[in-house]
Amino acid sequence: MSTAAPSAAPIVALTEAAKHFGPVRALDGVSLSISPGDCLGLVGHNGAGKSTLVNVVNGGLAPTSGSVAFPASGAASALAAGVRSVFQELSLCPNLTVAENLRISHSALKGMNWRAPARAEIRAALDQVFPGHGIDADAPVDTLSIAQRQMVEIAIGFAPRGTEARLVILDEPTSSLDAGIAEQLLSHIKQFCARGGAVIFISHMLGEIFEVATRILVMKDGKVVAEKPAGGFTRQGLVDAMGHVATEAAAAQAARAQGEEVLHTPEGLRARKGEIVGLSGLAGHGQAEALARLYLGATSSWRSPREAGMVFVAGDRGRDGVLPLWSILRNASISILPQIARRGMVDRTREAEITAEWKARIGIRTDDVTNPILSLSGGNQQKVLFARALASAAPVVVMDDPMRGVDVGTKQDVYAMIRAEAARGRTFLWYSTETEEVCQCDRVFVFRNGEISAELTGDEITEERILEASFEMEGA
Ligand SMILES: Nc1ncnc2c1ncn2[C@@H]1O[C@H](COP(=O)(O)OP(=O)(O)OP(=O)(O)O)[C@@H](O)[C@H]1O
């Protein structure tokens, strides 16, 4: 697939690179080289060390031992060697426009007249990666949907910015994109690598890894446990190498007894007790806003009862979920404080017991829950948000694309947990950009242009029907 010469010097070469955070061996002696034309698929469970590896490659972290070199360019730094990173935690400045965000990472744009070239460059990059994107270069970033923000970050990663991108590292790049936009990105990556660029592609979506990667590297506990050309792995082999026992998503729609209607919004969303209700459609068509309206409407009264009737699992954890200055324990337990308080005093022993129970149930990888939440990997932070919601007694759980960054094994565990909780009478409203997840639901509302374009139940919930409803109003 590559047109690059096979003998080309590696863009980056790691030799026995290690990174320790106190006693945690986040990276434990990894040797690796990436050459022009390579698309390296990087997989591993949450906390396996993938983000640490890429931060060592891009110069964000200095290795505790071992070395990082850039033989192809002879450059001393990752930046000078043309290494670019698109992070899992979206890192744009929300109060600046799309073009202004490009300017921040484009030091060659100097002087008074930088705006016009900045606009032109980000437009060209967006057009190249996501044809038909519809994003205005002058739009403030906080007016964009999470999918659009992810698209802008990716486009900035590939934009020339005065030099040439030689290696682009994409950490969970499609986690907020719907299937059509994700496909545009995968096709761009293939073209970029065919022209002699290289990509490190981190994803928990194994289908994408198989579609785009020329080589796959599996990490576990800070080490590389398997590395082969992509064709050398089967899906099951990959899951096994990561150290998961794959459980089938079968019986996803096992019959659940459903009770009375517990909510019915003016726009037509409705759900019964014990029902798992999906919100689907192309990203950015009003699903997240519908959930936010529902949640804020149910929880914003100043006379709100002691026990919350509804809890929320954020997908944009940096903006809507994680309390960054607090510990893992406090982040998880905040939803159960009313349950465990006596005469206004929190029972700290009970708080620690409940948090420990959820840490074990949902597999939060930490030795000490009093550590800061930001010491956890992205996927493990997401698990804390699940624990926060599921540990509460709220009968309705609202989830805004909540599986971003969660590894394949844990996803199956969380699906099972959601089904078990629904069987006990809890109601779930679940917006997801992944069809596999939407197909776990009992009833699905498909959104198009901010409105419900279809309501599907039982056997009607198929990828074809969802796509049909996502597009059908276009031709009208
Ligand atoms: N700044 C830090 N301080 C302490 N521990 C850290 C820090 N950064 C990472 N770690 C730990 O290093 C380990 C590897 O984390 P890393 O973020 O590299 O995992 P990951 O494979 O990228 O996970 P995910 O799929 O969830 O993003 C984890 O145990 C994490 O808790």
UniProtKB/TrEMBL annotation:
GO molecular function list: ATP binding; ATP hydrolysis activity
InterPro entries referenced in this protein's UniProt entry, alphabetically: AAA+_ATPase, ABC_carbohydrate_import_ATPase, ABC_transporter-like_ATP-bd, ABC_transporter-like_CS, P-loop_NTPase
Protein name: Monosaccharide ABC transporter ATP-binding protein, CUT2 family (TC 3.A.1.2.-)
Superkingdom assignment: Bacteria
Residues covered by the ABC transporter domain: 12-246, 245-474
Source organism of the structure: Alloyangia pacifica
Alphabetically ordered keywords of this record: ATP-binding, Nucleotide-binding, Repeat, Sugar transport, Transport
